[in-house]
Amino acid sequence: MSLRSVPLPRHVRCSVRACTSSVRHPRTPRTHASTSALHAQRPYATITPSILEPRPPPPPPPLPSDILSGGENRPLAPDAPPPPDAPDSLNARILHYVREERGGISLPSLLAQYDDRAGDVLPSALKYEPSPPAERRVWFSDRAAPGVVAIVHATGEGIVKVCSGFAVEPTRAEDGGGQLFVTCAHTLEEMRRAPVGAKSGTFVLASDGEGNLVVHRVTSIPSALPRSDVMLLRATPPRDASQPALASSFESGIESSPTLHGAGASTSGEQICSGAPVPHASGPLFRHVASPSAVSTTAPRVPTLPVNPYPLHPGARVRAHFVRDKLSPVDEEGWTPWIGGGWSKWVRGEVLGYRDFAGKEAKPGTYDALSHLLFEPLPTPGSSGGPIVDEESGAVVGVVLGTRMDSARIDGMRGWGVPSETILEMFSLPGLEGKR
């Protein structure tokens, strides 16, 4: 079968020619009127301003340090004038004390001691108190927790970081005098990245039991365990003439906005709740600081806490010392005024388990290394370094470090700390004091 072309009749050729003449050739130029009509008939893809200039994303949630500092997170120049309506803050008082004091040990020197004395064992021992008597045990009353203090690292450039700590009592007096305090180490390590000038230092803030603030100056770091995130501080209250100057500066109302870390990040999925700013001084501890006599110039000793070296089994009830800056109407009862106008509470919790340094589950009563302690509930920012106390005996069984994700089981975030036997590693064994 073959195909051949057949000529069309005349009337058919005319109709085809009339149809094709109405279709415009693609290259035929169009007039403005035809172009406008075509745009009105055919929708084209257009670039809207929302594509060229996208809307900014919503602001991130506030960091724990921003919540405690009122949202301000900028360093203050040493000579910057305070705002006319700036509220009196404990930050300014500490900064004034740092800038005015002479002869104190600086943060670079403390960091050098922290590195050089890592793993050192003190010649004195720490008394074993698994079942302390009534006058020694911790009571979870409505009043502020005695023996629990605030540890503040500050520079003259306006950077202030704070965590918690507590006093312990060795079996014999240490050389150099002062008291020993247990606290976390990561807040001090964070000061390595801070611009540290000639004026800097670490302080221990405590109450004398009568609503007066006592500022102890840290003079040395006798021992530290960087891997466990725990260290010892030796501090003495100021005995020179600069102490009344600190009290007079309380009236000046110098304001500062400290620079803090966020929630802090570390390896192994750990999140450290540290570096919370010193809260504003608006609580009962500062009702009587209008005169120099309001700040104690004596040397009262901070009450020490008993330490139980034996670990609790999972499921045991504990109380952890939590702090916060402000209270909301939905907060449960039990919060009491604390240092710097903040609030503290012995929060009821539970031991969830133990982990070794590799993150594997460890059990008490075995040869497993109980390197870290998991507990609930989650600690609040600024609670790092505070004690975890056995609810039954009233003795310290651990130190709060922060929070982390439990990798052994998918259970979410957990409270993270170290058992109290870690504290004993920095002291000599009982009966072997002073023997090297």
From TrEMBL:
Organism domain of life: Eukaryota
InterPro entries on file: Peptidase_S1_PA (IPR009003)
Region feature (Disordered): 20-90, 238-271
SUPFAM superfamilies associated with the record: Trypsin-like serine proteases (SSF50494)
Polar residues bias: start-end ranges: 245-271
Residue stretches of biased makeup (Pro residues): 54-64
The protein's name: Uncharacterized protein
Species per Swiss-Prot/TrEMBL record: Schizophyllum amplum
